[in-house]
Design a protein that fits this description.
This protein is of the alpha/beta class. The protein has one domain (2-269): TIM Barrel (Alpha-Beta Barrel). Helix content is 43%, strand content 15%. It is built from ten helices and eight strands. It has helices at residues 15-24, 45-58, 82-101, 120-141, 161-171, 182-187, 192-198, 227-236, 250-253, 256-269, and strands at 2-6, 29-34, 62-68, 106-109, 144-147, 176-181, 202-206, 242-244. Strands 3-2-1-8-7-6-5-4 form an eight-stranded parallel β-sheet. β5, α5 (161-171) and β6 (176-181) form a beta-alpha-beta unit. α3 runs parallel beside α4 (120-141). It is globular. 46% of the residues are buried.
Protein backbone atom coordinates (compact mmCIF):
# COMPACT_ATOMS: atom_id res chain seq x y z
CA UNK A 1 0.00 0.00 0.00
CA UNK A 2 1.41 3.36 -1.05
CA UNK A 3 1.07 6.31 1.32
CA UNK A 4 1.07 9.64 -0.51
CA UNK A 5 1.65 13.15 0.73
CA UNK A 6 -0.37 16.05 -0.66
CA UNK A 7 0.79 19.62 -1.06
CA UNK A 8 -2.63 21.08 -0.20
CA UNK A 9 -1.60 20.75 3.46
CA UNK A 10 1.40 22.97 2.64
CA UNK A 11 -0.55 25.59 0.70
CA UNK A 12 0.94 28.49 2.70
CA UNK A 13 4.53 27.35 2.10
CA UNK A 14 6.57 27.25 -1.12
CA UNK A 15 6.31 24.07 -3.14
CA UNK A 16 9.98 23.26 -2.62
CA UNK A 17 9.39 23.28 1.15
CA UNK A 18 6.69 20.66 0.69
CA UNK A 19 9.08 18.50 -1.33
CA UNK A 20 11.82 18.96 1.26
CA UNK A 21 9.41 17.72 3.92
CA UNK A 22 8.42 14.72 1.82
CA UNK A 23 12.12 13.90 1.43
CA UNK A 24 12.74 14.09 5.17
CA UNK A 25 9.64 11.95 5.88
CA UNK A 26 10.72 9.47 3.20
CA UNK A 27 7.47 9.80 1.26
CA UNK A 28 8.04 9.07 -2.41
CA UNK A 29 4.42 9.23 -3.63
CA UNK A 30 2.73 12.57 -4.24
CA UNK A 31 -0.83 13.63 -4.91
CA UNK A 32 -0.30 16.93 -6.66
CA UNK A 33 -2.90 19.54 -5.74
CA UNK A 34 -3.00 21.86 -8.75
CA UNK A 35 -3.80 25.19 -7.14
CA UNK A 36 -2.12 28.46 -6.26
CA UNK A 37 0.55 29.17 -5.22
CA UNK A 38 2.06 25.81 -6.17
CA UNK A 39 0.73 24.83 -9.58
CA UNK A 40 -2.03 26.43 -11.61
CA UNK A 41 -2.71 25.80 -15.30
CA UNK A 42 -3.53 29.43 -16.06
CA UNK A 43 -0.22 30.80 -14.76
CA UNK A 44 3.05 30.09 -16.59
CA UNK A 45 1.88 26.58 -17.41
CA UNK A 46 4.79 25.58 -19.66
CA UNK A 47 7.42 26.85 -17.23
CA UNK A 48 5.65 25.28 -14.26
CA UNK A 49 5.27 21.96 -16.04
CA UNK A 50 8.94 21.77 -16.88
CA UNK A 51 10.08 22.83 -13.41
CA UNK A 52 7.68 20.49 -11.61
CA UNK A 53 8.55 17.53 -13.80
CA UNK A 54 12.27 18.17 -13.35
CA UNK A 55 11.93 18.39 -9.56
CA UNK A 56 9.85 15.21 -9.38
CA UNK A 57 12.48 13.26 -11.29
CA UNK A 58 15.40 14.77 -9.38
CA UNK A 59 13.85 13.78 -6.06
CA UNK A 60 12.61 10.39 -7.30
CA UNK A 61 9.01 11.32 -6.58
CA UNK A 62 6.05 9.61 -8.22
CA UNK A 63 2.86 11.59 -8.88
CA UNK A 64 0.16 9.04 -8.14
CA UNK A 65 -2.75 11.44 -8.63
CA UNK A 66 -3.18 14.92 -10.08
CA UNK A 67 -5.95 16.92 -8.39
CA UNK A 68 -7.08 20.24 -9.88
CA UNK A 69 -8.62 22.62 -7.37
CA UNK A 70 -12.37 22.32 -7.97
CA UNK A 71 -14.14 23.17 -4.74
CA UNK A 72 -12.95 26.76 -4.24
CA UNK A 73 -12.20 27.99 -7.75
CA UNK A 74 -15.11 29.13 -9.97
CA UNK A 75 -15.38 26.00 -12.10
CA UNK A 76 -18.36 23.66 -12.06
CA UNK A 77 -19.09 20.80 -14.45
CA UNK A 78 -22.74 20.83 -13.39
CA UNK A 79 -23.29 24.56 -13.92
CA UNK A 80 -26.62 25.43 -15.53
CA UNK A 81 -25.10 28.37 -17.38
CA UNK A 82 -23.74 26.92 -20.62
CA UNK A 83 -20.86 29.40 -20.88
CA UNK A 84 -19.75 28.73 -17.31
CA UNK A 85 -20.00 25.00 -17.94
CA UNK A 86 -17.92 25.27 -21.12
CA UNK A 87 -15.33 27.40 -19.31
CA UNK A 88 -15.18 24.72 -16.62
CA UNK A 89 -14.72 22.02 -19.25
CA UNK A 90 -11.80 23.93 -20.75
CA UNK A 91 -10.21 24.30 -17.32
CA UNK A 92 -10.41 20.56 -16.62
CA UNK A 93 -9.15 19.69 -20.09
CA UNK A 94 -6.11 21.91 -19.57
CA UNK A 95 -5.51 20.11 -16.28
CA UNK A 96 -5.93 16.75 -17.99
CA UNK A 97 -3.18 17.61 -20.46
CA UNK A 98 -0.96 18.85 -17.62
CA UNK A 99 -1.58 15.59 -15.79
CA UNK A 100 -0.47 13.64 -18.86
CA UNK A 101 2.70 15.73 -19.20
CA UNK A 102 3.52 15.08 -15.55
CA UNK A 103 3.05 11.34 -16.14
CA UNK A 104 0.34 10.94 -13.53
CA UNK A 105 -1.82 7.85 -14.10
CA UNK A 106 -4.83 9.49 -12.41
CA UNK A 107 -6.62 12.82 -12.42
CA UNK A 108 -9.21 13.43 -9.72
CA UNK A 109 -12.62 14.70 -10.80
CA UNK A 110 -15.86 15.54 -8.99
CA UNK A 111 -19.41 16.03 -10.20
CA UNK A 112 -19.61 19.69 -9.24
CA UNK A 113 -22.74 21.07 -7.62
CA UNK A 114 -26.18 21.60 -9.11
CA UNK A 115 -28.10 24.87 -9.04
CA UNK A 116 -30.49 24.60 -6.08
CA UNK A 117 -33.23 26.33 -8.10
CA UNK A 118 -33.30 23.51 -10.65
CA UNK A 119 -34.64 19.95 -10.47
CA UNK A 120 -31.82 17.68 -9.38
CA UNK A 121 -32.12 15.54 -12.51
CA UNK A 122 -31.44 18.55 -14.72
CA UNK A 123 -28.21 19.30 -12.87
CA UNK A 124 -27.31 15.61 -13.02
CA UNK A 125 -27.69 15.74 -16.79
CA UNK A 126 -25.27 18.68 -17.03
CA UNK A 127 -22.72 16.88 -14.85
CA UNK A 128 -23.11 13.65 -16.80
CA UNK A 129 -22.61 15.37 -20.16
CA UNK A 130 -19.50 17.15 -18.90
CA UNK A 131 -17.96 14.05 -17.36
CA UNK A 132 -18.71 12.10 -20.55
CA UNK A 133 -16.75 14.64 -22.59
CA UNK A 134 -13.90 14.45 -20.09
CA UNK A 135 -13.74 10.66 -20.41
CA UNK A 136 -13.43 10.89 -24.19
CA UNK A 137 -10.34 13.08 -23.78
CA UNK A 138 -9.01 10.82 -21.02
CA UNK A 139 -9.41 7.76 -23.24
CA UNK A 140 -7.44 9.46 -26.02
CA UNK A 141 -4.68 10.46 -23.62
CA UNK A 142 -4.52 7.14 -21.78
CA UNK A 143 -5.30 8.50 -18.33
CA UNK A 144 -7.83 7.44 -15.69
CA UNK A 145 -10.29 9.84 -14.10
CA UNK A 146 -10.80 9.10 -10.40
CA UNK A 147 -14.37 10.22 -9.68
CA UNK A 148 -14.61 11.34 -6.06
CA UNK A 149 -17.88 11.65 -4.13
CA UNK A 150 -18.00 14.97 -2.29
CA UNK A 151 -19.58 15.51 1.11
CA UNK A 152 -23.20 16.57 1.48
CA UNK A 153 -21.87 20.02 2.43
CA UNK A 154 -20.05 20.37 -0.90
CA UNK A 155 -22.44 18.92 -3.48
CA UNK A 156 -25.99 17.74 -4.11
CA UNK A 157 -24.96 15.31 -6.85
CA UNK A 158 -22.39 12.55 -6.27
CA UNK A 159 -22.05 12.21 -2.49
CA UNK A 160 -22.29 8.41 -1.99
CA UNK A 161 -21.84 5.03 -3.66
CA UNK A 162 -25.29 4.94 -5.34
CA UNK A 163 -24.54 8.25 -7.05
CA UNK A 164 -21.03 7.17 -7.94
CA UNK A 165 -22.08 3.85 -9.42
CA UNK A 166 -24.97 5.46 -11.31
CA UNK A 167 -22.62 7.93 -13.02
CA UNK A 168 -20.06 5.26 -13.88
CA UNK A 169 -22.77 3.05 -15.39
CA UNK A 170 -24.20 5.97 -17.37
CA UNK A 171 -20.85 7.02 -18.82
CA UNK A 172 -19.65 3.50 -19.65
CA UNK A 173 -16.00 4.49 -20.07
CA UNK A 174 -12.91 2.48 -19.14
CA UNK A 175 -11.30 5.80 -18.23
CA UNK A 176 -13.75 6.53 -15.38
CA UNK A 177 -13.33 4.80 -12.03
CA UNK A 178 -14.48 5.38 -8.49
CA UNK A 179 -12.49 6.36 -5.42
CA UNK A 180 -13.00 6.86 -1.69
CA UNK A 181 -12.66 9.91 0.50
CA UNK A 182 -13.08 8.65 4.07
CA UNK A 183 -14.79 11.83 5.32
CA UNK A 184 -17.39 11.86 2.52
CA UNK A 185 -17.83 8.12 2.96
CA UNK A 186 -18.50 8.37 6.70
CA UNK A 187 -20.90 11.29 6.31
CA UNK A 188 -22.87 9.20 3.83
CA UNK A 189 -23.10 6.42 6.42
CA UNK A 190 -20.94 4.08 4.36
CA UNK A 191 -17.81 1.93 4.69
CA UNK A 192 -15.21 0.67 2.20
CA UNK A 193 -17.28 -2.52 1.95
CA UNK A 194 -20.04 -0.54 0.25
CA UNK A 195 -17.59 0.62 -2.41
CA UNK A 196 -16.03 -2.79 -2.95
CA UNK A 197 -19.45 -4.41 -3.25
CA UNK A 198 -20.70 -1.93 -5.87
CA UNK A 199 -17.62 -1.00 -7.88
CA UNK A 200 -15.57 -3.27 -10.15
CA UNK A 201 -12.40 -1.40 -9.21
CA UNK A 202 -11.21 1.24 -6.75
CA UNK A 203 -8.76 3.69 -8.28
CA UNK A 204 -7.71 5.91 -5.36
CA UNK A 205 -8.19 6.53 -1.63
CA UNK A 206 -8.11 9.65 0.57
CA UNK A 207 -7.16 8.53 4.07
CA UNK A 208 -8.08 11.16 6.65
CA UNK A 209 -9.84 11.36 9.97
CA UNK A 210 -12.97 13.44 10.58
CA UNK A 211 -15.21 14.66 13.37
CA UNK A 212 -18.22 12.70 12.11
CA UNK A 213 -20.33 15.82 11.64
CA UNK A 214 -18.57 18.25 9.28
CA UNK A 215 -16.37 17.98 6.21
CA UNK A 216 -13.20 18.56 8.29
CA UNK A 217 -10.23 16.59 6.93
CA UNK A 218 -8.18 15.79 10.01
CA UNK A 219 -4.88 14.09 10.74
CA UNK A 220 -5.20 10.50 11.85
CA UNK A 221 -6.55 10.16 15.40
CA UNK A 222 -7.49 13.84 15.56
CA UNK A 223 -11.10 12.82 14.93
CA UNK A 224 -13.52 9.97 15.53
CA UNK A 225 -13.49 7.93 12.31
CA UNK A 226 -12.65 4.24 12.43
CA UNK A 227 -9.84 4.63 9.94
CA UNK A 228 -7.97 1.55 11.16
CA UNK A 229 -10.92 -0.61 10.09
CA UNK A 230 -10.92 1.16 6.73
CA UNK A 231 -7.30 0.15 6.18
CA UNK A 232 -8.07 -3.40 7.24
CA UNK A 233 -10.82 -3.52 4.64
CA UNK A 234 -8.44 -2.27 1.94
CA UNK A 235 -5.96 -4.97 2.86
CA UNK A 236 -8.61 -7.69 2.82
CA UNK A 237 -9.66 -6.61 -0.68
CA UNK A 238 -6.01 -6.44 -1.79
CA UNK A 239 -6.17 -2.77 -2.73
CA UNK A 240 -2.85 -1.85 -4.37
CA UNK A 241 -3.40 1.84 -5.09
CA UNK A 242 -2.29 4.88 -3.12
CA UNK A 243 -3.71 6.26 0.12
CA UNK A 244 -3.30 10.03 0.29
CA UNK A 245 -3.13 11.92 3.58
CA UNK A 246 -5.39 14.78 2.45
CA UNK A 247 -5.06 16.77 5.67
CA UNK A 248 -6.62 20.24 5.56
CA UNK A 249 -7.58 23.06 7.90
CA UNK A 250 -6.22 26.07 9.76
CA UNK A 251 -5.04 23.86 12.62
CA UNK A 252 -2.50 22.27 10.28
CA UNK A 253 -1.39 24.98 7.87
CA UNK A 254 1.20 26.57 10.17
CA UNK A 255 2.96 23.27 10.86
CA UNK A 256 1.91 20.88 8.10
CA UNK A 257 4.94 18.60 8.38
CA UNK A 258 4.08 17.81 11.98
CA UNK A 259 0.53 16.78 11.02
CA UNK A 260 1.78 14.45 8.29
CA UNK A 261 4.51 13.03 10.51
CA UNK A 262 2.08 12.20 13.32
CA UNK A 263 -0.22 10.42 10.86
CA UNK A 264 2.72 8.44 9.51
CA UNK A 265 3.58 7.38 13.05
CA UNK A 266 0.03 6.04 13.49
CA UNK A 267 0.37 4.05 10.28
CA UNK A 268 3.77 2.79 11.32
CA UNK A 269 2.23 1.49 14.55
CA UNK A 270 -0.04 -0.67 12.38
CA UNK A 271 2.89 -1.95 10.37
CA UNK A 272 1.70 -0.22 7.21
CA UNK A 273 5.02 1.51 6.53
Amino acid sequence: MKIAGMNITFRHYPFHYFLDCMDSLEISCIELWAGEPHFYVYRNILSNLRETKREMKRRNKEIVCYTPEQCIYPFNLAASDSHWRQTSMEYFLQNLYASVELESPLMLLTSGIGDFSLPLEESWKYASESIYQMTKAAEREGITLALEPLTKFESNLIIDTPGLTRMIKEIQSPALKGMIDTVAMQLAGETPEDYFSMLPELSHFHLIDGDGESDSHLALDDGSLNWREYIKSLQEHQYIGACTLEIMGSNYYQNPKNAVQKSLEKLNDLGIL
